[in-house]
Amino acid sequence: MPINAVILSISKLINTTTSNLPATPTKASTSSLVSFFITGKIQSTSKMCIHKRMIFIQCGHTRWGSEVKACNQKLAFDTSPTTSIDCDTMYSHPMHTVKIFEVCKSCEIKKSNTDRTAEKLKQALKDIRESVARMEKMQKVVETTEKAEVETGKKAEVDTDDDEDLAALESWD
Questions:
Q1: What is the pTM of this model?
Q2: 96 and 41 in one domain?
């Protein structure tokens, strides 16, 4: 069996327990495997700074926290900013990841705004339904009054309470 196939199979086996090694062997992961065979311990070659991370389960958003461990590139930049490049890649180890069973603040604000708007719309629809019901009731009263006038030949009297409703009905147009 060629050495590359052995390294690939061992790499896949190790990736089930350590998440910081790539799926296909690279120069860094190969040196990690060689180090594993010599010392018996897996030494990670960290190319990313490890940060705390919060995962909000209900909305699926994540927030990054403070830095837990700086990578070699970040340490080199801290000692000599003119000759090295700052690390811009963030990584979170599962031990520094916290799952929160809530909604993040931005989603909570959006949800409250949506709920408030929906409540206003429900109230407006309720008011419109009540107004339409009053208008239909008044229209029936006016129709029966006009029908009675035609049958009797004289003008029928209308209650004063109905006049207010009739004025409201006419103002609707």
A1: 0.45
A2: no
